Amino acid sequence: MILDLEDAVADADKVMARQHVAAWLVERAVTVRINASDTPWFDDDIAVVGATSARVIVPKVQSAAQAASVVERLPGNPIVVLLETAAGIVNAAAICATPGVSGVAFGSVDLGAELGVDPADRVAMSYARAAVVMATAAAQLPAPLDGVCLELHDAATISDEARYAAAMGFGGKLCIHPRQIASVNAAFSPSDDEVAWARRVVAVGDITGAAKLDGKLIDRPVVARARRILDRVDSVS
Questions:
Q1: Hey, which bits of 126-179 come out as E strands?
Q2: Is 184 exposed, middle or buried (0-12, 13-18, 19+ CB in 10 A)?
């Protein structure tokens, strides 16, 4: 669950929202999205979350120096950088490699606004998504979270977007309403066929060279992918 102090809160309500978040954090461990570093609310947000061990989502991170500055100010908090600007995408590799960054998320809506394109346009967003996935993997961080789906009621659209993100290499998807959760979780869970295939691959045993299964070549990278699928199953069982 993410408590939002940024875009979901009107300027006039920022102080009240921060007070509510501070009260919530006294008893609960949740994630908080703070305001960006170039806003007048940033320092006060930092003070509130820094007094806790809450995971912090930092929006509109555009450089490694900016990420490092937040990490320095929040040494006891897991830091998730939100890459949602053109500069953030261009600098994704350096940002993700910043010591102290523990996770990455992609912000398609803000990026779409900056580029003047529909954030749901997969062609327009394909480079940015690939850049985020590659940068995260290169930094050996957990697979990133994809941006939100703005559709609240159409489960088919939500599922389709989530399946696409999973195919691109994302490990999950940000949700903006509880009714999206089931569709997203289902899309990111390995199918029965994938699990069955992974179990057959692993059952072959240690592979030092190459082998054949179901008429296809399998070698160490194939086994590694199979083990990752089974790890995903174990993580939710």
A1: 145-146, 172-173
A2: buried
Q: Do β-strands 145-146 and 172-173 pair in parallel, antiparallel, or remain unpaired?
A: parallel
* CB atoms near residue 110 (< 10 Å): 20
Are the beta carbons of 179 and 152 closer than 8 angstroms? yes
Which region, left, alpha or beta, applies to residue 43 given φ > 0 means left and ψ of -120 to 50 means alpha?
A: alpha
Is residue 191 within 8 Å of 159, Cβ to Cβ? Answer: no
Query: 196 and 151 share a domain?
Result: no
Kindly report the pTM of this predicted structure. 0.88
Angle at 94 between CA 93 and CA 100, to 5 degrees: 110
Same-domain check for residues 114 and 209: no
Tokens of 16: 């009240």
Tell which residue, 113, 109, 150, 106, has the closest CA to residue 128. 106
Tens-digit pLDDT profile for residues 104-130 = 999 999 999 999 999 999 999 999 999
Task: Assess whether 54 and 116 both reside in one domain.
Answer: yes
CA distances from 21 to 15, 59, 103, 196 (A): 10, 17, 21, 44
* Whether residue 168 sits in one domain with residue 58: yes
Extract the runs of DSSP E, i.e. beta strands, from 88-162: 101-106, 145-146
